[in-house]
Amino acid sequence: MLIRKTLSNEQSKVIKDLMVRWVCSDNRPFSIIDDNGLRALIQECVKLGSIYGNIDVNDILRGRTIISAHLQVVAKSCRERIKESLQEPYKNRCLSISPDFRCDKYKQISYLGVTAVIVDEGFKY
């Protein structure tokens, strides 16, 4: 359960100052402030702080090596769930898979994606 609190002007200024310093010193886009993933991460950190008190951020946030290794575990789990969810439609010939290839001309990066359309027993997709 979330508790809505209004920060004092001084507390709000400290948070805004830290955000400005972060965006400017680490060359981040302003849009990162509105990122849902960042907000979910911060919300979970606030929740942990409410449980354990004022704990060191380094005890919560992990480094890129640990996170990249964990990404492999999460990706494997996601692939298994996707594979499992496609089994029944595939067997019943109710599955259409289309590749999607696009290029980002600005960053000079190519992307390959896949779109899967599934029709269930209620003829919904």
Question: Roughly what fraction of the amino acids lie in strands?
Answer: 15-25%
Q: Could you give the distance between the termini? A: 34 Å
The whole-angstrom Rg is 21 Å
The stretches of 5 or more residues where confidence is low (pLDDT under 50) are none
Counting structural domains, the number is 2
The helical percent reads 40-55%
Structural class label: alpha+beta
Major sheet: 2 strands, antiparallel
Shape label = elongated
Q: What's the helix count?
A: 3
> Total strand count, please?
2
Query: What is the residue-averaged pLDDT?
Result: 92
Strands in their spatial order, largest beta sheet: 1-2
Order of helices and strands: HHHEE
